[in-house]
Every structure is written in structure tokens, then in C-alpha cells.
């Protein structure tokens, strides 16, 4: 099975200052999303604030055991639903733009089983992508936002 490694960093590159901070997830109801992400996925609330100009509530959230990247959840003000249907996994790739965020897990089968026990929608059950040496699966939050999980294979 093929794996990959990152090329060397380029600290002298024109935009070397760019580092990952957060991914924004848009939902219709901030309180409901906060409840789901903290009670089901056990995300931690980092900081919350209202945004009067946009008429929304916002918050930064972190995964239970990872401080490297935050999720910014924005809720309220009646957003239009996404045209991406999470029930049809191949169809989710029919639209341009942001598709998913990915989590690395040590045992994808066990993580999927726990998500199913917690009532989380599994959009694509685990499958192997040999060219990258990963087993991956996809799940969705209650608003159809997609998340990938990957297990690095030996």
C-alpha cells in the first residue's frame, strides 16, 4: 500500500506566514449546533460571541483531544440550505467549493461504530484508498456538513 510524506517546508516562500487556523461551519441554529457538537462529538467550546452586523451567533470549537485546528460555528439569520445532498456520497462531489474537514483516527471501524451508536449519519462506510495508504469514511452533522475520517494504514 502506498503512503505519502510531506515535502520539505519552504520557510522562504512568498506566503510562508500562512498557517491553518480554523474551518467555518454554517448552520441555521447556533444553540442546536453547539449542543450537537459538544454532546455528540464532545467538542470543547473555546470562545463564543454574537456578531450583530451579520445577525448571527458564533463560536470557536476544538476537537476533544486536538488543539491544532479550530472549527468556527456560525448560526442564525436563516441561511439558505446547501445544494449538496449528504445522503448521496458520490453526488456530494457535484458542487464546487468546500467539501469536508478530515479527522485522523487510529481505528476507523471502532470510531464509525461509536458514531452509529450515537445516531450520527454515516454517509460513506469505511473503504480503502490504496494510492494514499488510507482507510476513509464520511459522516455528516444534522445539517449535512460532511466530515471525513482517515486511518493511516501500514
Short recap of the structure:
The chain has 154 residues and is mainly beta. It has two helices and eight strands. The chain has helices at residues 30-39, 108-117, and strands at 22-27, 44-51, 56-62, 70-75, 100-104, 121-129, 134-140, 146-152.
How many helix segments? 2
Number of strands: 8
Reported by name, the CATH topology of the largest domain is 2,3-Dihydroxybiphenyl 1,2-Dioxygenase, domain 1
What's the CATH architecture name of the largest domain? Roll
The major β-sheet equals: 4 strands, mixed
Strand content: 35-45%
- Return the domain count: 2
Mean pLDDT across all amino acids: 93
Strand order, sheet with most strands:
1-4-3-2
Q: Could you spell the SSE succession in H and E letters?
A: EHEEEEHEEE
What structural class do the secondary elements suggest? Answer: mainly beta
Low-confidence stretches: none
Query: Radius of gyration from the CA trace?
Result: 17 Å
The CATH H-level homologous superfamily of the largest domain: 2,3-Dihydroxybiphenyl 1,2-Dioxygenase, domain 1
Global morphology: globular
Estimate percent helicity. Answer: 10-25%
The end-to-end distance, rounded to whole angstroms, is 7 Å
CATH secondary-structure class of the largest domain = Alpha Beta
GO biological process, one term: L-methylmalonyl-CoA metabolic process
Protein name: Putative lyase
Organism: Boseongicola aestuarii
Keywords: Lyase, Metal-binding
Amino acid at each position: 500500500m502506498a503512503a505519502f510524506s510531506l515535502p520539505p517546508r519552504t520557510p522562504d516562500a512568498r506566503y510562508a506566514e500562512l498557517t491553518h487556523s480554523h474551518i467555518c461551519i454554517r448552520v441555521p441554529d447556533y444553540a442546536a449546533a453547539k449542543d450537537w457538537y459538544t454532546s455528540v462529538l464532545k467538542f470543547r467550546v473555546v470562545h463564543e460571541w454574537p456578531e450583530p452586523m451579520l445577525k448571527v451567533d458564533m463560536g470557536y470549537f476544538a476537537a476533544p483531544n486536538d488543539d491544532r485546528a479550530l472549527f468556527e460555528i456560525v448560526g442564525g439569520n436563516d441561511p439558505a440550505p446547501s445544494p449538496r445532498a449528504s445522503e448521496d456520497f458520490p453526488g456530494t462531489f457535484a458542487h464546487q467549493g468546500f467539501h469536508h474537514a478530515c479527522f485522523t483516527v487510529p481505528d476507523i471501524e471502532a470510531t464509525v461504530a461509536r458514531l452509529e451508536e450515537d445516531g450520527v449519519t454515516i454517509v460513506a462506510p469505511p473503504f480503502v484508498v490504496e494510492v494514499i495508504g488510507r482507510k476513509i469514511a464520511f459522516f455528516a452533522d444534522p445539517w449535512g456538513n460532511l466530515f471525513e475520517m482517515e486511518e493511516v494504514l501500514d
